[in-house]
Amino acid sequence: MEEPDWSSCTERELWEYVAIHLSDSGIDTVLVGGAVVSYYSQGIYKSGDIDLVFQSYKLTEETIKKVMNQIGFKRQTGRHYKHPKCKHLFVEFISPPVGIGNDYHIKPNELKKGKNIIKLLSPTDCIKDRLASYIYFQSIECLDQALLVAKKHPFDLKEIEAWCKKEGMQTRDGLLEFKKRLKKII
Predict the structure, then answer these.
(1) Are 75 and 81 in contact (CB under 8 A)?
(2) Does the pLDDT of residue 186 top 90, yes or no?
(3) What is the pTM for the complete model shown?
(4) How many whole angstroms from its chain centre is CA 15?
(5) Which residue of 2, 28, 64, 163 pairs with 55 in a disulfide if CB–CB is 3.0 to 4.6 A?
(6) d(Cα 18, Cα 156) in Å, to the nearest integer?
(7) Which fold has domain 11-120?
(8) What confidence tens digit (pLDDT) does each residue in 160-181 have?
(9) Domain map of the chain by residue range?
(10) Which residues, other chains included, contact 43 with Cβ-Cβ below 8 Å and sequence gap of 6+?
C-alpha cells in the first residue's frame, strides 16, 4: 500500500495504512474510539488519533514495535506510536478484548482492502461506545459523536436499548437524552 501524505492524512487513511501493514504481518486489529466516528462521519469529526485493539492475547509489545518501526513509526510513551512526518495524528494500541461497557461480545465490521480484511466497530457499536463515554464519563462531546453517526448511518436502536438495559440503571438517563436529541435530527 502506498504511504499516505503524512502532513495531511485523515484518520481513515492512517488507519487503513497501519491496519493493512499489521494484517500483512499477521496482526489482527479492530478500530475503536473516536476514529470510528471520524470514519463514519466522513471526516466531519476529527479524533486526533487512531485506537486499535489487537485481537491476540499472545501478541507481544515487541512484535507490534517491530512492525510499526518497519513503516516508520516510533514508540512514544506507553502504547502510543507516532510517525515523524505525521504531526497531527498518532496510533494507540489497546489490549484485548474489544468491549463496550460490560459487553465483550462485539462483532466488528470487516472491510476488504486488496487481500486484507481490516476491522472497525459497526455504526451501532460505535454509537454504544460513544454513549458509554457519555454515560460513564459525562462526556457531552461523546453524545454528540453518537448522534453524528446515527444521523449518517443506519443503526439498530433496539440493540442499543438492549445494551443499555444489560448495563443497568445508570444508562437510563443517557439513553433517554440520546433518543430525545435523535428525534430532533432524524
Answers:
(1) yes
(2) no
(3) 0.96
(4) 10
(5) 28
(6) 29
(7) Beta Polymerase; domain 2 (3.30.460)
(8) 999 999 999 889 999 999 999 9
(9) 11-120, 123-185
(10) 10, 11, 12
Strands of 29-32's sheet, edge to edge? 74-75, 80-82, 90-94, 49-54, 29-32, 116-120, 109-113
Q: Which three cell numbers stand for residue 120?
A: 472497525
Look-up of cell digits 438492549: 162
